[in-house]
Write a structure and sequence with these properties.
Elements (H helix, E strand, L loop, with lengths): L2 H10 L3 E6 L6 E5 L1 H18 L5 E6 L5 H16 L3 E7 L8 H14 L4 E10 L2 E8 L25 H5 L30
Parallel strand pairs: 3-4
Antiparallel strand pairs: 1-2, 4-6, 5-6
Length: 199
Amino acid sequence: MKTRDALTLARSQNVDLVEVAPNAQPPVCRIMDYGKYRYEQGKKEKEARKSQKVITIKEVRLRPKIDDHDLKTKGNQARGFLEEGHKVKMTVLFRGREMAHQDIGREVLNEMIDMLKDVATIEQAPRVEGRNMSMMLSRAASKSSEPKQPRPARPEQAAAPGPRPEQASAPRPEQAAPAPRPTPQPQDGGSTPATATAE
Protein backbone atom coordinates (compact mmCIF):
# COMPACT_ATOMS: atom_id res chain seq x y z
CA MET A 1 0.00 0.00 0.00
CA LYS A 2 1.27 3.46 -0.80
CA THR A 3 2.04 5.93 1.98
CA ARG A 4 -0.61 8.34 0.76
CA ASP A 5 -3.31 5.66 0.85
CA ALA A 6 -2.22 4.51 4.32
CA LEU A 7 -2.39 8.08 5.66
CA THR A 8 -5.83 8.55 4.16
CA LEU A 9 -7.04 5.30 5.76
CA ALA A 10 -5.60 6.27 9.17
CA ARG A 11 -7.22 9.72 9.09
CA SER A 12 -10.55 8.24 8.13
CA GLN A 13 -10.43 6.02 11.26
CA ASN A 14 -9.13 8.90 13.44
CA VAL A 15 -5.96 6.96 14.38
CA ASP A 16 -2.22 7.26 13.66
CA LEU A 17 0.07 5.69 11.10
CA VAL A 18 3.12 4.38 13.01
CA GLU A 19 6.30 3.04 11.41
CA VAL A 20 7.27 -0.09 13.34
CA ALA A 21 10.06 -1.52 11.15
CA PRO A 22 11.89 1.25 9.30
CA ASN A 23 14.80 -0.98 8.21
CA ALA A 24 12.60 -3.55 6.48
CA GLN A 25 12.19 -3.59 2.72
CA PRO A 26 9.63 -2.18 2.24
CA PRO A 27 9.19 -0.40 5.63
CA VAL A 28 6.38 -1.75 7.79
CA CYS A 29 3.77 0.59 9.27
CA ARG A 30 0.81 -0.01 11.53
CA ILE A 31 -2.43 1.88 11.96
CA MET A 32 -3.02 2.38 15.70
CA ASP A 33 -3.82 4.86 18.43
CA TYR A 34 -0.29 5.95 19.31
CA GLY A 35 -1.27 7.62 22.61
CA LYS A 36 -3.00 4.46 23.83
CA TYR A 37 -0.01 2.38 22.71
CA ARG A 38 2.41 4.55 24.71
CA TYR A 39 0.16 4.33 27.77
CA GLU A 40 0.00 0.53 27.63
CA GLN A 41 3.78 0.26 27.17
CA GLY A 42 4.41 2.49 30.17
CA LYS A 43 2.00 0.44 32.27
CA LYS A 44 3.77 -2.80 31.32
CA GLU A 45 7.18 -1.34 32.18
CA LYS A 46 5.89 -0.14 35.56
CA GLU A 47 4.54 -3.59 36.41
CA ALA A 48 7.84 -5.18 35.33
CA ARG A 49 9.77 -2.85 37.66
CA LYS A 50 7.49 -3.80 40.54
CA SER A 51 8.07 -7.51 40.05
CA GLN A 52 11.83 -7.02 39.61
CA LYS A 53 13.79 -7.53 42.81
CA VAL A 54 16.69 -5.10 43.29
CA ILE A 55 19.68 -6.46 45.20
CA THR A 56 21.76 -3.81 46.92
CA ILE A 57 25.07 -4.03 48.77
CA LYS A 58 24.98 -3.08 52.44
CA GLU A 59 28.25 -2.28 54.17
CA VAL A 60 28.98 -3.09 57.81
CA ARG A 61 32.11 -1.42 59.20
CA LEU A 62 34.18 -2.94 61.99
CA ARG A 63 37.32 -2.06 63.94
CA PRO A 64 40.09 -4.46 64.97
CA LYS A 65 39.53 -3.63 68.68
CA ILE A 66 35.75 -4.01 68.56
CA ASP A 67 34.05 -5.25 71.73
CA ASP A 68 32.24 -8.59 71.82
CA HIS A 69 28.85 -6.95 72.43
CA ASP A 70 29.37 -4.51 69.56
CA LEU A 71 30.47 -7.37 67.33
CA LYS A 72 27.26 -9.25 68.12
CA THR A 73 25.22 -6.11 67.35
CA LYS A 74 26.95 -5.75 63.98
CA GLY A 75 26.32 -9.43 63.30
CA ASN A 76 22.59 -9.04 63.96
CA GLN A 77 22.53 -6.05 61.65
CA ALA A 78 24.23 -8.02 58.89
CA ARG A 79 21.85 -10.94 59.47
CA GLY A 80 18.88 -8.65 58.92
CA PHE A 81 20.35 -7.40 55.63
CA LEU A 82 20.98 -10.96 54.43
CA GLU A 83 17.47 -12.13 55.33
CA GLU A 84 16.07 -9.24 53.27
CA GLY A 85 18.01 -10.55 50.26
CA HIS A 86 20.82 -7.97 50.18
CA LYS A 87 24.53 -8.61 49.90
CA VAL A 88 26.72 -7.51 52.80
CA LYS A 89 30.22 -6.10 52.58
CA MET A 90 32.10 -6.53 55.85
CA THR A 91 34.92 -3.98 56.18
CA VAL A 92 37.55 -3.75 58.92
CA LEU A 93 39.06 -0.24 59.18
CA PHE A 94 42.73 0.03 60.20
CA ARG A 95 44.25 3.22 61.55
CA GLY A 96 47.91 4.07 62.09
CA ARG A 97 49.94 1.21 63.49
CA GLU A 98 46.96 -1.16 63.31
CA MET A 99 48.06 -1.99 59.75
CA ALA A 100 50.93 -4.00 61.28
CA HIS A 101 48.37 -6.33 62.92
CA GLN A 102 46.18 -7.38 60.02
CA ASP A 103 45.78 -10.82 61.57
CA ILE A 104 43.54 -9.27 64.24
CA GLY A 105 41.23 -7.90 61.56
CA ARG A 106 41.15 -11.29 59.86
CA GLU A 107 40.14 -12.90 63.16
CA VAL A 108 37.27 -10.42 63.49
CA LEU A 109 36.03 -11.34 60.02
CA ASN A 110 36.32 -15.05 60.84
CA GLU A 111 34.17 -14.51 63.94
CA MET A 112 31.55 -12.83 61.75
CA ILE A 113 31.65 -15.78 59.36
CA ASP A 114 31.04 -18.22 62.24
CA MET A 115 28.21 -16.03 63.50
CA LEU A 116 26.45 -15.88 60.10
CA LYS A 117 27.29 -19.31 58.68
CA ASP A 118 23.64 -20.43 58.85
CA VAL A 119 22.35 -17.61 56.61
CA ALA A 120 25.36 -16.49 54.56
CA THR A 121 27.93 -17.77 52.10
CA ILE A 122 31.27 -16.18 51.30
CA GLU A 123 31.11 -14.58 47.88
CA GLN A 124 34.49 -12.87 48.17
CA ALA A 125 37.20 -13.96 50.60
CA PRO A 126 38.78 -11.35 52.91
CA ARG A 127 41.34 -9.19 51.13
CA VAL A 128 43.21 -5.98 51.88
CA GLU A 129 42.21 -2.83 49.99
CA GLY A 130 44.43 0.06 51.05
CA ARG A 131 43.92 0.50 54.80
CA ASN A 132 40.81 -1.68 54.85
CA MET A 133 40.19 -5.42 54.84
CA SER A 134 36.86 -6.45 53.37
CA MET A 135 34.88 -9.49 52.32
CA MET A 136 31.53 -10.00 50.57
CA LEU A 137 28.72 -12.17 51.91
CA SER A 138 25.53 -13.24 50.16
CA ARG A 139 22.45 -15.05 51.33
CA ALA A 140 22.77 -18.82 51.52
CA ALA A 141 20.44 -21.01 49.48
CA SER A 142 17.43 -22.23 51.43
CA LYS A 143 17.20 -25.90 52.33
CA SER A 144 13.74 -26.11 50.75
CA SER A 145 15.32 -25.92 47.29
CA GLU A 146 17.04 -29.29 47.81
CA PRO A 147 15.24 -32.19 46.09
CA LYS A 148 13.20 -34.28 48.49
CA GLN A 149 14.03 -37.96 48.83
CA PRO A 150 11.11 -40.33 48.20
CA ARG A 151 9.73 -41.87 51.38
CA PRO A 152 9.72 -45.69 51.68
CA ALA A 153 6.39 -47.47 51.23
CA ARG A 154 4.41 -48.17 54.37
CA PRO A 155 3.95 -51.80 55.52
CA GLU A 156 0.17 -51.62 55.08
CA GLN A 157 0.64 -50.52 51.47
CA ALA A 158 2.44 -53.76 50.63
CA ALA A 159 0.49 -56.44 48.73
CA ALA A 160 -1.44 -58.78 51.02
CA PRO A 161 -0.35 -62.44 50.73
CA GLY A 162 -2.81 -64.83 49.02
CA PRO A 163 -4.73 -67.52 50.93
CA ARG A 164 -2.96 -70.72 51.82
CA PRO A 165 -3.97 -73.91 49.94
CA GLU A 166 -5.30 -75.62 53.06
CA GLN A 167 -7.32 -72.55 53.95
CA ALA A 168 -8.83 -72.32 50.45
CA SER A 169 -9.89 -76.04 50.38
CA ALA A 170 -11.36 -76.14 53.88
CA PRO A 171 -15.22 -76.01 53.79
CA ARG A 172 -17.02 -73.31 55.65
CA PRO A 173 -19.28 -74.24 58.57
CA GLU A 174 -22.45 -73.28 56.68
CA GLN A 175 -21.40 -75.48 53.73
CA ALA A 176 -20.93 -78.68 55.81
CA ALA A 177 -23.42 -81.63 55.40
CA PRO A 178 -26.25 -81.67 57.96
CA ALA A 179 -25.90 -84.22 60.77
CA PRO A 180 -28.35 -87.27 60.71
CA ARG A 181 -31.27 -87.12 63.15
CA PRO A 182 -31.42 -89.82 65.84
CA THR A 183 -34.02 -92.64 65.40
CA PRO A 184 -36.64 -92.69 68.20
CA GLN A 185 -36.42 -95.80 70.44
CA PRO A 186 -39.57 -97.75 71.53
CA GLN A 187 -40.78 -97.13 75.05
CA ASP A 188 -42.04 -99.83 77.54
CA GLY A 189 -40.99 -102.76 75.34
CA GLY A 190 -43.39 -101.84 72.61
CA SER A 191 -42.66 -102.50 69.01
CA THR A 192 -41.73 -99.91 66.51
CA PRO A 193 -44.78 -98.82 64.53
CA ALA A 194 -44.56 -100.03 60.95
CA THR A 195 -45.33 -97.79 58.08
CA ALA A 196 -48.09 -99.15 55.83
CA THR A 197 -47.54 -99.09 52.14
CA ALA A 198 -50.53 -98.86 49.88
CA GLU A 199 -50.53 -101.29 46.98
